[in-house]
Design brief:
The protein is α+β, with helices and mostly antiparallel strands. Helix 5 packs across helix 6. It is globular and about 75 Å long.
């Protein structure tokens, strides 16, 4: 639990000194719960356990949200298509969580975004009756979606749907081809910066007393007879040859929330002949990012495709277009988008746009892997989005599957299982625990003009900070007050302030340039240069906090430039195999052994 003499906000600062102190605690103490994995489920589990008063630690091999949890469609949604599949329990669960996040837990990070469901135009003599039937069919689905949100959503947080004529749909979305629709239905879902939500979860867990450490890779399980008693961890930031680079962390219960790396945890049990009882398949989802000027519209689109659905999502000064849904069996740490993926997405979205997009319109591309519970289905789009919790060995719990929106439910379920063996643990309270930055957000947003005047910055700057940090925006304004140069835009990325890079290294646990340009900000896919023009400036700002000399700064920039070059090369390759080979041309920045080239592939390691 947190030291009562330390405020929640101070305790939630993930500074370099905090990481060093947490590593010392990992070596010296025994924990009630040790979580492996710093994605949304792992960070959520750490918060859930810590908020119940348990002694908690979390280790993550790379960075918070470095895998699946930073590469989603950026939506907090109930899954409109699940209604059609009659999976009402999934819709109920997800809409409940959407309501909680948008109104109570993270209103500064989750906000409404409008979507249009275009209605197919139809042709021939039966066109009018057919269009009426399709409108009734789609309308009933969206009405049911709103009804679920109203009845079960615990605070809707979203406006109700509305039917639009063809002309009304094109007023909202002028780029929609007139012959591609007979009208539309407008509804709302939630939008989130997925990586920011995860780092906020980790900070909130830390504010509740959890020990948290990134660049800390679990490399083996500790056992006594047939009980797991902890994990062997490697500090990926330790100097080459350091005697204490690997150490043991003792725990009464280990929770593995490792997503698409879940099968690696299973392999650690092979020597005792145990099978975990669940299998996870990775489904690759690719997204394109284009400038807002490339498409004219005031809402997003949700479109049917032959294999799944396609979203066109407004994202600040950009649009996100995705996603694919294909099986992936190659490198899991750095999934690669191929030219085939990009061509597929362009073809699908161009079928409804009046001005087709081309590859020249693309600013950024990102690919992520969804961890789906494996079944007998041939297509990953048919695999379960539900989650499972299993205990393959006493003291070890695996949680897998699920979807981003329902992370809190998954976290509560796995901690409930841990609580049963620990005994005397109170129920989950995360449904009523606002994340850092949420408390007082509505009032601070209302008074944002006064806040801007007090700090001598434009109102637009305050709005930008409030939408990314909530009430923690005052921390960044204090940094700017102490050093006015931090109010300047980051080189090559005028949408972000220099202060945000400094803050990421000082308070948000960022250890490498990639952490900031890819996850604390989204410069890696929001700019046509993919962050290469921002790397030098960002490295200088980070280095002043982390104590980098010129050689370390140069190495960080070189690593980042190599990463961008490898990703660009992979996106020109014709298929998954060649794209994966191209992406693996750039080594991961983490790990002294990886820099020497003799580290086992990240694909062979758990998160």
């Amino acid at each position: 639990m947190r030291d009562p003499n330390v405020s929640r906000y101070v305790a939630g600062q993930l500074s370099p000194a905090r990481r060093a102190a947490d590593l010392r605690r990992l070596r010296a103490e025994r924990f009630d719960v040790l979580v492996i994995g710093g994605g949304v489920t792992g960070a959520g589990a750490a918060l859930d356990a810590a908020s119940r008063g348990l002694k908690v630690a979390l280790v993550e091999a790379r960075d918070y949200a470095a895998g699946t949890s930073s590469r989603s469609s950026k939506l907090i949604h109930g899954g409109l298509r699940y209604l059609e599949q009659l999976e009402f329990h999934l819709v109920h669960e997800a809409l409940t969580e959407r309501g909680l996040l948008a109104t109570r837990l993270a209103p500064h990070l989750v906000r409404p975004v409008p979507f249009l469901v275009p209605l197919p135009a139809g042709t021939g003599a039966g066109g009018l009756p057919g269009r009426a039937l399709r409108r009734a069919y789609y309308g009933a689905g969206v009405a049911a979606y709103d009804a679920f949100a109203g009845l079960f959503g615990r605070g809707r947080g979203m406006p109700l749907h509305r039917h639009l004529s063809r002309e009304g749909a094109r007023r909202v979305f002028p780029s929609l081809r007139a012959d591609a629709t007979a009208g539309a239905i407008r509804y709302y879902d939630g939008q989130v910066d997925d990586a920011r939500l995860v780092v906020t979860l980790a900070r909130t867990a830390a504010s509740q007393g959890a020990v948290v450490a990134t660049s800390a890779r679990a490399v083996g399980l500790l056992r006594q007879a047939r009980e797991v008693t902890g994990v062997r961890v490697r500090d990926m930031e330790a100097p080459e040859g350091a005697a204490d680079a690997e150490f043991e962390v003792r725990a009464r219960t280990v929770i593995a929330a490792t997503g698409v790396w879940s099968d690696d945890m299973s392999r650690m049990l092979n020597d005792v002949g145990l099978r975990p009882g669940i299998r996870v398949r990775a489904s690759k989802g690719v997204h394109l990012v284009v400038p807002r000027s490339a498409i004219t519209g005031d809402a997003g689109l949700i479109l049917r495709t032959p294999s799944s659905v396609l979203f066109v999502i407004p994202w600040g000064g950009h649009w996100i277009i995705g996603t694919t849904d294909t099986d992936w069996r190659l490198d899991r740490a750095h999934p690669a988008a191929s030219a085939r993926d990009i061509d597929y997405l362009l073809a699908q979205v161009n079928s409804v746009l009046d001005r087709p997009l081309t590859a020249d319109d693309i600013e950024g591309v990102y690919a992520g892997l969804r961890p789906l519970l494996s079944g007998e289905a041939d297509s990953t789009s048919k695999l379960s989005r539900e989650h499972a919790v299993v205990e393959p060995m006493l003291g070890l719990l695996l949680v897998a599957g699920g979807k981003y929106t329902t992370y809190r439910v998954m976290a509560a379920d796995v901690v409930d299982r841990a609580a049963r063996r620990l005994g005397g643990v109170r129920p989950s309270r995360t449904a009523d625990l606002p994340l850092l930055g949420a408390d007082g957000y509505a009032a601070m947003w209302r008074d944002r003009a006064d806040l801007a005047r007090r700090h001598g910055v434009p109102v637009g700057v305050v709005e930008h900070l409030l939408e990314r940090y909530g009430t923690l925006a005052t921390d960044l304004l204090a940094l700017i007050g102490a050093d006015p140069l931090l109010a300047s835009p980051l080189a090559g990325a005028p949408e972000y302030l220099a202060a945000e890079v400094t803050y990421a290294a000082r308070c948000e646990g960022a250890l490498h340039l990639d952490d900031v340009l890819t996850r604390r900000t989204r410069i890696s896919f929001e700019t046509s240069h993919r962050g290469t023009e921002s790397a030098e400036h960002a490295a200088e700002l980070m280095g002043s906090v982390l104590g980098w000399d010129s050689s370390v700064r140069a190495r960080e920039v070189a690593h980042y430039l190599a990463r961008v070059a490898a990703e660009r090369q992979s996106q020109r390759m014709p298929d998954d195999l060649t794209a994966d080979a191209a992406r693996l041309g750039a080594l991961d920045v983490r790990g002294f052994a990886a820099d020497r080239g003799d580290e086992p592939s990240p694909d062979r390691q758990p998160a």
